[in-house]
Amino acid sequence: MTWVEPSSPGALARSRLFLGAILVVATLLLGVAAVLFQAPEMIGHEKVLTDFDAFHIAGTMAIHGHAADAYQAAKMIEAQYAIAGTRSFMPWTYPPPYTLAMMPLAHLPVGAAFLLFVSASFLFYLHVLRRIAGEYLPGVLIAILPTLVLILRTGQNGFLTASLIGCFLLAFQQKRTGAGIPLGLMVIKPHLAAGIALLALLGRRWSVMAIAAAVVIAAVALSTAVFGIRIWPAFVGGVEEASGFLAKRYYPLFRMSSIYACVGSLGGSPKLAMMAHGIVALGGVGFLLHAWRRGYAPRRLAAVACAVSLLISPYNYDYDLTILGLAIAFVLKDLVELARPYEMLALCALSWFVTGYGLGAHTARLKEEAVRDLAAASGWSLTAPALLLLIIAGHLILRRGDGGAGVQQRQ
To answer: Does pLDDT of 5 surpass 50?
Structure first.
């Protein structure tokens, strides 16, 4: 008599019950978060500025003709107090096209704007993941559950950026020139697009690159027309100022997912941290080149590109790990077929650590600090080494398939 374990990894990864439960909890969390943004006193809380507040405040400043001021940390902090009645260390370093995109939302009350932005981007992300993972969508959401909770609470843009990357990869696999549109729209967060842009270059998809360039030029031209040419020196100045803040460790390094943040949080100098980060980033790019030359199957190549995109920039946060969700979506079916049950459990636990470390390990015990105390308040940043371990472990398991090489000649 054969007994089939009802809770096998494959069954859990396809469980509609889990999917329904996640969506119900996400809806409830969105509602509570909207109240916390708009009227926290209704549930006995004080107003604490969170990520989406910065989006809304920057958009509000732009509406009133002060978009350039948003790129000066001191003026941004004062605007926070004038608009929200409280202050927080949230420098504005997004490119002007993203500032422009926030202006329509800033016409709405912050709670309504949050609800619209996060609900729409979350549905977009679910749609893209569904197209990639198919019936394994519940398993993908389970694997990155901490990141989902984080974004649903803070209103960050991880759902949006990952959705654009996912749209590019799907269109790229189908050899559609329209892949250039989401690639170009990544102008809102270009440092996350390095891996997928390299794919377009390797594939000599010149039409895709041309469309992407046209989208970028249009976005730059439109934001320049609205804000004026002076927005660009202000943006460059804001990025330089933020780089100084990062070197002085004013940013909460424990929330960051880069090797730079890891080495810096452990006491390494900015120079040493950047050297270590550069080595890992180059290694990731080298592996993507290797995967391309070996003819990795399209879905595994897409997963590699997503993983590499998370390794290149020193300024990556835990909310950017929605891109890890894309990588998992591309290979989860193969992992379930090739991995042993205990290995799947270990991979899931490691993924939870990667996506939940910054928020779970430190945020609950941290109180509001003055800018000068942020460096002291930051704990160790351990996400990056755990992410590398997860990538390596997943790759080794996938190598068991396809004759141990995990490759398939591209058409």
So the answer is: no
pTM equals 0.91
Residue 9: pLDDT over 50? yes
DSSP state of 380: -
Largest CA distance in the chain: 76
- Would you tell me how many other CB atoms lie within 10 Å of the CB of residue 353? 18
Strand partners, 21: none
Handedness of CA 118, 120, 122, 124 (dihedral sign): negative
**Helix, strand, coil percentages for the chain (3-state, nearest 5):** 75, 0, 20
d(CA 410, CA 208): 18
Whether the Cβ atoms of residue 335 and residue 399 lie closer than 8 Å to each other: no
Nearest to 238 by CA among 43, 96, 108, 394: 96
Give the per-residue pLDDT at 361: 52
Scanning 144-269, the segments in alpha helix (DSSP H) are 145-154, 158-173, 180-185, 194-202, 206-227, 231-247, 259-265
Residue 407, pLDDT above cutoff 60: no
**Helix, strand, or coil here: 110?**
helix
Amino acid, single-letter form, for residue 238: G
